[in-house]
Amino acid sequence: MNATDTGGASGAPTAVQVAAMWISTHEDDIRGPRIPFIRSKFGLNILEAVEASRLAHKLRFAGGR
Fold first, then answer.
1. What does each C-alpha distance from 38 to 3, 4, 11, 21 come to in angstroms?
2. Against a cut of 0.90, is the pTM above it?
3. Helices 34-42 and 15-25: crossing angle, nearest 10°?
4. Residue 27 gets which letter from DSSP?
5. Is the pLDDT score of 28 beyond 50?
6. Helical packing angle, 46-61 and 15-25, nearest 10°
7. Which of 9, 14, 22, 57 is the most exposed place for a label (fewest CB within 10 A)?
8. How many CB atoms sit inside 10 A of residue 38's CB?
9. How far apart are CA 19 and CA 49, in angstroms?
10. Is residue 18 a contact partner of residue 42, using CB atoms and an 8 Å limit?
C-alpha cells in the first residue's frame, strides 16, 4: 500500500484494505464469483468488495502504486 492507502483515522487498515491484502496473496483460494466470495468472507457491502478487488489488483500488479 502507498501513503494514500494507510487506513482509517487510527492508522489501522480498513476492512477493505485487509480484504485487498488477503486477495492479493490468496488469489487461487477464491472459489466461484469473486465479488460474492469477498463479500461473504469479509462482511463487505458490494461497493467495498469492488474496491477491495480493485486495490488487490493494484497491490498485485502495480506494486501498490
1. 24, 23, 23, 12
2. no
3. 130
4. G
5. yes
6. 50
7. 9
8. 25
9. 8
10. yes
